[in-house]
Amino acid sequence: MPVMVPMASALHELITLGILPGMVPGEEHNRPQADARLLTNLRRGALEYCVLARLRHGESYGLDIAQALSADGVLIASEGTLYPLLSRLRRSGLVASSWRESHAGPPRRYYRLTPDGVAALAAFERTWTPFRDAVDRALKGANA
Amino acid sequence: MNSSGQRIAEVERYIHELAIALSGLPADEREDVISGIREHIDDALLAIAVPTPDDVRRILDDLGDPLAIAADAGAPSATRSTTSGNSSSQHASGSPPAPGTAETVPLLQRDWIPAATVIAFAVAGVFFWAGGPGVWLLAAAAWLAGLVTLLASPLWSGYENLIGTAVFGGGPVLAAGAGTLMLGWRHRPSMLGAWLPGLDWWRFGPLDRLVALFLVAIPLVIAVGTAIWLLRRGSARARR
Fold first, then answer.
1. Taking CA B110 as the corner, what is the angle to CA B94 and CA B112, rounded to the nearest 5 degrees?
2. Of A63, B10, B68, B155, which is most buried, counting CB atoms within 10 Å of its CB?
3. Taking Cα atoms as reference points, which of A105, A60, A77 lies closest to residue B47?
C-alpha cells in the first residue's frame, strides 16, 4: 500500500511532463503542475533554436550553454535535457563539434553553427517574431 | 579521499542510471548523450576548488532525473522534422544527408587516430628491439610520427600528453635499449647478442638474466599499459 503513493506521484509526473498522455486528475486545483506542462509544450518547438542562437557569436561547450539557458528556469528545467538536444542538432547537421584542449582538465567538446544551422536560425527568427507579436496581440485583445 | 570516493560513486551511479534509461537508443546516440553529461559534470566540478558532496548533489540535481533526460532523448525528434522542413523549402534538393559536408571531422580527431598512434609506437618498439642500423631508421620514423600525433591531436589532454611523452618519448624505452646493448656487449663473443640482444638472454648467467628481465619486462609492461590507456581515452573522445 505505501508503494502506491510514489507510484502514483511518478505517474502524475510523467503525465505532467507530457510523456504520458492524459489529463491530470484535479488539474484545475493544481496550477503549478498545469503551468509546468504548458511550459514543456511551449519549449518543445523553440528550445533548439535558443541553443542555435547561443552559438551565433561563436562556439561554446556543453556546461556553458546549459548554464546560460537554465539561468532563468524558463527555457530549460533540467540541464541534462540539453544533451539529447545537442546530439540531435549535431546529427541533423545544424551544429558541428570538435574537441579542444581546456586550460585545466580534460578536453572539451565545442559546438558551432554549420551553414545549415545559420539558415535554420534565420528561418526561425523570421517566423517567430510575427508569431510572438500575434499571440501578444491576441492575449491583449482577449483581456481588453 | 573518502569524500572524493563518495563523489565519484555518486556520479557513477547517476551515469549508470542514465545508461540504463537510455538503453533503448542506438549505441552511438547513447554514448553521445552520456559523454556530454559526463563532460558537463567534470567541467562543473572543476569550477569548484574543493567540491563537497552537497556540490555534487546540486550538480546532479540541476542535470535532472535520468528518466526525464532519456524521455527527451527518445522523444520523436522535433529537430529532424523541422530541419527537413527547412531544407526542403530553402535548399531545393531533398538530399537528406546534407550534414555530411558540413560536419567533416578534422584529420587529427578522426576515430582511427588513437589506434594509428599506438600502432606507430608499437612498430617503433618492435623495430628498435629487432635492431640493425636500417631498421632503426624505420623505428625512428614511426616513433616520431607517433609522438607528433600524440602531441598534436586534441583527443588527448595535456596530462595524457605528458604521460604518453614520458613513456614513449624515451625514458624507459631508452633505458631498456641501452641496458640490453650493454648486456650484449658483455657477451661480445656472440655477435648475434650485440645486435639481437632480446634473443640471447637465456645464454647469460642468472644475474644478467635478472637484469635483463628488469630492463625489458618492466618498461614493456609500462609501455603496453600506457598504450592501452591512451587508446581508450582517445577512442572514447573520437567516438561520435
1. 125
2. B155
3. A105
Q: Which residues of chain A have pLDDT under 70?
A: 1-30, 104, 142-144
The rounded distance, in Å, linking the Cα atoms of A10 and B94 is 42
Residues 15-44 of B with CB under 8 A from A: 18, 29, 32-33, 35-37, 39-40, 42-44
CA B98 to chain centre: 31
Chain B: give the shortest CA distance to residue A136, in Å.
Answer: 24
Percent over 70 (pLDDT), chain B: 64
Q: Do A86 and B36 touch (CB under 8 A)?
A: yes
Among B47, B194, B165, B80, residue whose Cα is nearest residue A120? B80
* A121 interfaces chain B, CB cutoff of 8 Å: no
Distance CA A136, CA A143 (A): 11
Rounded Cα distance, B233 and B186, in Å: 42
Cell numbers standing for residue B65: 532525473
- Here the ipTM equals 0.70
